[in-house]
Design goal:
about 300 residues; disordered N terminus; mainly alpha; 2 domains; two-stranded parallel ribbon; 2 strands
Length: about 300
């Protein structure tokens, strides 16, 4: 079987170029073409909240969240593209060698590190200050580091990738619900018991989902992913896919806006660290228990049966 790609830097460039162009095009649209008042909710207000200003804390978070929304879009089409390339290559009797995710990211790094600030510092009004423009680029690059990782699995192991995505859903409650414990201290109409109940209840629900997935894996005899892969899947769904879904679905038609960071991240660093620690512990525990269970099952299946 012939190879359809050498999987080196040339192949990586063929995929990195459209990724970089896509992200830059989104930033140019959001900051230079679309209505800023709609995309970033200038002058937006709710009960007991003053109208949003271009550089208040809430609006500032929308600017750098644009980088995660863009990375979320890449996380959708990039693995699908590599999956399709792999299927087409197999149909043509060729072996497809997908580019390494780190190479694709490395080739995107310089264009985005330069291009995103170049856009946000110069187009439309108000332009962003240098530190905020750099934050937008940093968020996009951080999100992209996660978004391009599933590409190799999509091309070579699409079924395993689907299982991994289903597993990652189990970490979403910990990554997004633990932050509820800080809400009572921010003047919201939610009591501390309710906030803690939501955080603990969500975490328990996530554990239950991981238990269901573990049972399904045992039934289908599919070994589980490592803790790192599981945690990255949860991070990608929670902080890339969900902000993208919010942008596309949870906003009024014709008035799509970038979500504020507080909808997905804790405002207090200690609370955000706690959410990451809980999710990391869940990923490590699930991976360890599955590995142990799979090993025991494997050894049991190999054990000689007693003579009758």
């Amino acid at each position: 079987m012939k190879r359809s790609s050498d999987g080196g830097w040339r192949a990586a460039l063929a995929w990195a170029a459209p990724v970089a162009v896509f992200v830059l095009a989104l930033f140019y649209y959001w900051f230079g073409v679309a209505d800023r008042h709609a995309v970033f909710l200038y002058a937006h207000t709710t009960v007991n909240v003053p109208p949003a200003q271009p550089f208040d804390a809430l609006t500032v978070s929308r600017y750098w969240m644009a980088g995660l929304v863009a990375a979320g879009a890449v996380l959708v089409w990039y693995p699908l593209g590599l999956w399709a390339a792999g299927r087409i290559a197999a149909w043509r009797g060729r072996e497809f060698d997908p580019p390494a995710g780190w190479r694709v990211w490395a080739l995107c790094a310089a264009p985005l590190a330069v291009g995103i600030p170049a856009i946000t510092l110069t187009v439309n009004a108000p332009t962003l200050p240098p530190d905020l423009a750099a934050a937008c680029a940093a968020a996009a690059l951080a999100g992209l580091a996660v978004a391009v990782l599933p590409g190799e699995w999509a091309a070579r192991r699409p079924i395993d990738l689907a299982w991994l995505a289903a597993d990652g859903l189990g970490l979403v409650p910990a990554l997004t619900a633990v932050r509820a414990i800080e809400l009572p201290g921010r003047g919201l109409s939610i009591t501390a018991p309710v906030a803690w109940g939501a955080a603990i209840g969500g975490t328990v629900a996530g554990l239950a989902w991981l238990g269901i997935m573990s049972a399904l894996r045992a039934w289908r005899r599919r070994p589980g992913p490592g803790a790192g892969a599981l945690l990255l899947a949860g991070l990608g769904i929670s902080y890339l896919c969900l902000p993208l879904v919010h942008y596309l679905i949870a906003t009024p038609p014709g008035f799509r806006y970038i979500t504020a960071a507080s909808n997905f991240f804790a405002l207090e660093p200690a609370v955000q660290a706690l959410a990451l620690a809980v999710a990391g512990a869940q990923a490590w525990g699930a991976a360890a228990l599955r590995r142990r269970g799979f090993t025991v099952e494997k050894e049991t299946s190999r054990a000689p049966r007693p003579q009758r």
